[in-house]
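Reviewer 2 asked us to include a model.

Predict the structure of this chain.
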Amino acid sequence: MIFTKEYVIINKVNNPIVKEWSADRSFTVVKEVILMSGNKGGSTANAVRAIAEPIAQQLGLSIWDVRYVKEGAQWYLRITIDKETGVGIEDCENMSRALDAPLDEADPCRDPYILEVSSPGIERELTREEHFQQFIGADIMVKMIRPVEGIGKEFKGKLKAADKQTVTITDHSGENEVTINKKDTVYIKLDDFDF
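Predicted model (structure tokens):
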């Protein structure tokens, strides 16, 4: 969870900060990002998202996802970018370069990390509320932590509805539907891979 406070002058040194110009560009507004303890790098990911979103907008991109994860002994900061016309390698390079100085200045990650900037690709994972709303009616595939009675552990269908906790999926005939809790899934992805 992130709380922001707006200051004209930086008054704390140890917290990550995001600087923005005021509307009339007469002074710099500093948002002090206060990291609250969270699990699985959630608070770090939120702090990085706050830093990355304005940079992405300046580059004509949007932030699809931010994850701060540990694999083995190494931490990875994974930023997934998107744009309507599709993401190219140049977009990833430009975003990575543009993030270097702000991330170094804010220092939101407690441990050394490897920065990865990528596109969501095909079969992109739906993780945020806006992802689910954007793809209502789309084909999706779901993998559950435990099997759902009568359906199994992995299944496909159309995304019918979603809220903060649940997702409703219909089969392709539209005759059957199931509502599942998001927290009970391993993933929910777009099923957009065609040969």
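The chain has three helices and eleven strands. The two ends are 41 Å apart (CA to CA). We have added this to the supplementary material.
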